[in-house]
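Students often ask what a holo structure prediction actually looks like on paper. The answer is less mysterious than it sounds. You provide the chain, you provide the ligand, and the output is a string of discrete structure tokens encoding the 3D arrangement of the protein together with magnesium ion.
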Amino acid sequence: MAAPWEDVLREEAAVREAARLAVDAALLAGVLMRTEEEPNASEVVNYAPFTLLPSAVPSALFEQAYAVQQDFNLLVDAISQNREFLEHTLASTIKVDDFTARLFRIYTQVLEEGLAQSVFLGINRSDYMFDCGADGTPALKQIEINTIAASFGGLTSRTLAVHRQVLKVLGKAEEASRLVPNNPSQGLALGIVKAWELYGSQSAVVMFLVEEVQRNIFDQRCVENELWNRNIRVIRKRFRDVFEKGSLDDARRLYIDGQEVAVVYYREGYVPQNYDPQNWEARLLLERSRAVKCPDIATQLAGTKKVQQELTRPGTLERLLPGRAASVARIRATFAGLYSLDLGEEGDKVAAKAIAAPDCFVLKPQREGGGNNLYGEELRHVLEKIKDSPERTSYILMDKIKPQPSKNYLLRPHSPLKISECISELGIFGVYVRQGKEMMMNKSAGHLLRTKAIEHADGGVAAGVAVLDTPYLV
Ligand code: ADP
Ligand code: MG
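The corresponding structure tokens follow.
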């Protein structure tokens, strides 16, 4: 799977010069992040970390990942409408995981009142690694699907131009011309536009629900600008603003600062730290409203690790997607082994297996955002401690994916330039819009390649571990 520039990587002077140029190109192209020191100011910004060179991605697996994206859109949407499945699947989890339980309470509360929302917008990102089998053949294996606040679609839209230029500078112009076009920020925006149109109020705005700390604002601005360019007004608000100034009218239309909100695009609200009691109240208000939530709370629950694990049980996909055998087959082909740790005989066996061979598995809690999973000795230690307690149920177990590493330079502000052994994770963005029972849009919207040094087991770009990359198809 080596890219055709292993030779270039060893030419130190050329690499150094290319790295300087790459950083300037990234700044010019808008591959930007606010700094750790001043996460809420744009006076001083820096480039978002990225690889010096594109990483090799097997073209068959890249195509497979694109080909299954519309199936995953259908699946997530089907789960979000299946109360019985969500109740049954999350029953054990919500007994021990307070965060999932709170989301679930809002979910049932909103259903009991009756949904005011009739247009649904899903923006997700399905992430994969290339598992290297015993014979060395790589296979596409899903790591997870993110159904809320899937990020870096904006910045990755701008990374391509940087890599194109770096390749040209290093004498690889022909290869540069073969990099695949990619513009998720536009694709995501078109989904938001469709939802906004179907909501049907010319004067209503799109509200980005954003965090208190907004280091990754430029990624969001890329999507925001696409909307402004189409004459749709965008406002940025926090849960706190919604709590203080949000209200519903008799038809449960959502208003804030006197403006009607057509679409709420969450870039926040996926981890417990995002919520205090007032923020939970704000979340409930949003969910009760008629506004199109991206995602609604049911779709957020469809993205939990517990749901992912239950999907691998024989017969589950068939039940969720009746009459869609081809979709089911495409989806199932991307599944790695996933195992329930619910209390009982099945879970006992799984726990014992993981304790005996901790390097073959990943232990995952119901959390998002990177840095929460457990590996190796730590996995063994934690599982031994909780193996007979209900706490075990708050985790799932997954086969560890083992990709073939390759060499690259990871460019990060204030870090020395050094070569690293790296592995990559490919994400495909999916967008869909449903009105009532009718699918109005179902698309893939571009890709994201993130690469990290092999010494890091976990963590994404925002967590400071992975960096932005561009696939070079081989
Ligand atoms: P999160 O919701 O925190 O992003 P993920 O399931 O995506 O959780 O895991 C975070 C990171 O951990 C991934 O980006 C990947 O690098 C690593 N990881 C997760 N699952 C596996 C696995 N089965 N095998 C190898 N690495 C994994
Ligand atoms: Mg992830």
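The pocket of adenosine-5'-diphosphate (ligand 1) is lined by residues 127, 143-144, 336, 362, 364, 367-370, 372-373, 398-401, 425, 458, 460 (CB under 6 Å).
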